[in-house]
Fold this protein.
Amino acid sequence: MLPDIVDVARKNGLVISDRTLHSEEVLCKCPFCNEDSKPGKKRKFYLSLNAQSQLFKCWYCGESGGVLRFIALLEGVPEEKVRSRYRRSHTTHPAERLTRRQRLLLGGYKEPDWEAMKKRDRKYYLRTMDRLWERWNAFLESERQEAYFLLVLGIRFGKYGKYVEQIRQREKQIGASLLKELLNIYSSAVRPSWTEKVEAQIDAFGIKTRKT
Ligand SMILES: [Zn+2]
C-alpha cells in the first residue's frame, strides 16, 4: 500500500486547515508556492489533498499529482526514487482494488490475473497498474465534471432533488462517490478552474431555455 497523502502532509509539517481535517478534501497551506502564507491570507489554504483519490493540487500555482510525486516534491528527490522505495516494500497496487465493473467502464480490460502477471514480469505489471490507475483517475475527473454540471443545473433551476438523484444513480453505477466532493467544491471559496467552464455552459444553457 502507498502511504496516505494526509499522513504524508502531517509528517512533513504542512499547515492543515482544522476545519477540513476529516473531510474528503483536506486543505493545507501550499509549500510549493507559499502564496497562502503571505500576510493577509491567513485563512486561505490553496493546497487541496484528496483523501480518497490520494491526489493533490494547488488551486493557486497548479502543482499537482499523486502521492508519490507529493513525497518527491516535499523531500526534494526524484519521483522514480520514491517509487522504487515503495515498489520494494509494497506489493498491491491501488489499481488492483478496482472492481471488474470499474475496469469495464475504462474499456476493454479483461479479467486479469494480477498474481501471474506480477510473477512473470514485475515491471510490466507495475506499468499496467500505473496506467490503469491514471485512466481511472482521469475517468473520475470527467465524471466529477459531468456531475457538477447536473448539480449546478439543479441549484440554478430549482430542481435540486431531481439532479441529485441522478448523481446518486451514477455513483452507484461507477462505485465511487461524487456528490460529497462536489458539494465541498461548490461551497468552497477557491474552486478549481474547470468549474468556471461548467458554469459558463450552464449560463449559456439558461439563456437558451429562456428564449425558447
Ligand atoms: Zn501552490
